[in-house]
Specification:
Elements lengths: L2 H35 L2 H4 L2 H27 L10 H33 L3 H4 L4 H17 L3 H5 E4 L2 E4 L2 H17 L1 H28 L3 H36 L1 H15 L5 H24 L1 H5 L3 H15 L1
Antiparallel strand pairs: 1-2
Helix pairs in contact: 1-3, 1-12, 1-14, 3-4, 4-6, 4-9, 4-10, 8-11, 9-10, 10-12, 11-12
Subcellular location: Membrane
GO cellular component, one term: plasma membrane
Organism: Adineta ricciae
């Protein structure tokens, strides 16, 4: 093994061990997210409901990925020795990732609906419909990637999809379903949310000025509180989207490149193989895992979230 290959392998092992610790902390963060967003002040928002759903799914993903990462530290990975684990390994990871990302997209849509000043638009999402959507999303994602376990098998002590056509399809499918489709939707609805908040802020003020002084004070307090909470939820969502896009955009790009290079190039040097293996780890494991572990840190920017979190901590300590 050359020095480059050895250094990259050692670096990957170190980052894997560090990532396991960080993901464990991320699980605690997601648990706190659920507790805070289920509190009365924030639970009224549909956006909070999908934040909770995303946190639960991300927690399951982090637990599952910790198992995969611990397994990868061994010289003989389980997916390369056990056919059942080989077929389920990528499939379950794909289902959990797809479910979590879908909840994030629907959170954008729900925040847009919730921020609208039109009653008809706000009535599009009811509590029963929200719960049905949350239950339906993972079922859909169990069906969409069903081709993964069908075409995955162990070949030369490596778990992979055997068909070149399926591998190429999988690469472009991941690029479309996890980048081309969700990113524009997230950005578009984030812009719409911002516009709704600006419009509502301009419209409510003239109405309040016509009220008597006591009524004006009450309405100002209610409107300002509602607007501030709604605005902070939207800000948290926007920043989470920016972090998500920044950390996950390289995965589909590298996957397509890696698939095309494996088809067009027959012979690669050991250093080239080691570099591509390390880049695959960074884009498909390390950065994606971080995107699922950092939402708690993103939510800490919100004054309302920090205030509710402090109440939870004080109530627990007392």
């Amino acid at each position: 093994m050359s020095s480059i290959s050895s250094n990259l392998d050692n670096t990957q092992r170190f980052l894997t061990a560090a990532l396991i610790v960080f993901l464990s902390i991320g699980i605690i963060g997601h648990a706190l997210n659920c507790i805070v967003f289920l509190r009365k002040k924030l639970s009224a928002s549909l956006c909070s409901t999908f934040f909770v759903a995303t946190s639960v799914t991300s927690t399951l993903f982090l637990i599952y990925d910790i198992v995969l990462l611990v397994n990868s530290l061994h010289d003989h990975a389980l997916e390369n020795a056990n056919l059942v684990f080989c077929k389920l390994c990528l499939y379950l990871r794909h289902v959990l990732l797809g479910t979590s990302r879908t909840y994030l997209i629907i959170a954008c849509i729900s925040c847009y609906i919730y921020s609208s000043r039109h009653t008809r638009i706000r009535n599009l999402f009811r509590q029963k419909m929200t719960l049905r959507i949350i239950a339906l999303v993972p079922i859909v994602w169990m069906i969409i990637p069903v081709y993964i376990p069908i075409f995955s098998s162990i070949h030369h002590d490596q778990c992979r999809m055997q068909s070149t056509v399926v591998t190429l399809y999988h690469s472009f499918y991941v690029c479309f379903i996890f980048a081309i489709l969700p990113f524009p939707l997230m950005i578009a609805f984030s812009v719409l949310i911002y516009q709704n908040l600006r419009k509502r802020h301009r419209i409510v003020r003239p109405i309040v000025r016509k009220s008597n002084p006591k009524q004006k004070g009450d309405q100002n307090k209610n409107l300002h509180g509602f607007h501030r909470c709604d605005r902070q939820l939207s800000t948290m969502l926007l920043i989470q989207i920016i972090v998500y896009i920044s950390l996950t955009i390289l995965h589909p790009i590298h996957l397509v490149y890696n698939t095309l290079s494996s088809i067009t190039e027959e012979v690669k040097s050991n250093d080239r193989i080691a570099m591509e293996k390390f880049l695959t780890f960074m884009t498909s494991d390390f950065l994606i895992d971080l995107s699922n572990a950092v939402p708690f840190l993103v939510f800490l920017i919100s004054h309302t979230f920090r205030k509710e979190l402090c109440k939870v901590i004080v109530a627990y300590l007392c």
